[in-house]
Amino acid sequence: MDGIRYAIFTDKSIRLLGKNQYTSNIESGSTRTEIKHQVELFFGVKVIAMNSHRLRGKARRMGPIMGQTMHYRRMIITLQPGYSIPPLRKKRT
User: Fold this and answer.
1) pLDDT band at residue 72, thresholds of 50, 70 and 90?
2) In this structure, are residues 29 and 92 in contact, taking their beta carbons and an 8 Å threshold?
3) Backbone angles phi, psi at 63, to 5 degrees
4) Model-level pTM greater than 0.85?
């Protein structure tokens, strides 16, 4: 899947899992229809809503030079009742 980078697990995103909503960072150039199509094909689910917002990069200093990390987009994907995305693989210890 080219458009979706990785899933997000924050307090808010974990709370949204109870409402059948999944949060992930996506590439800035991806469109909603591309992401919806990729999620439906890859996971075999039905998407009913998608909300996205753009997050600014953080300021970073490298010696005397002030820089910035890349901007990115975050998308909240709502699935139809009865569908779910399987949990991610557990990290090895």
Assistant:
1) confident
2) no
3) 70, -130
4) no
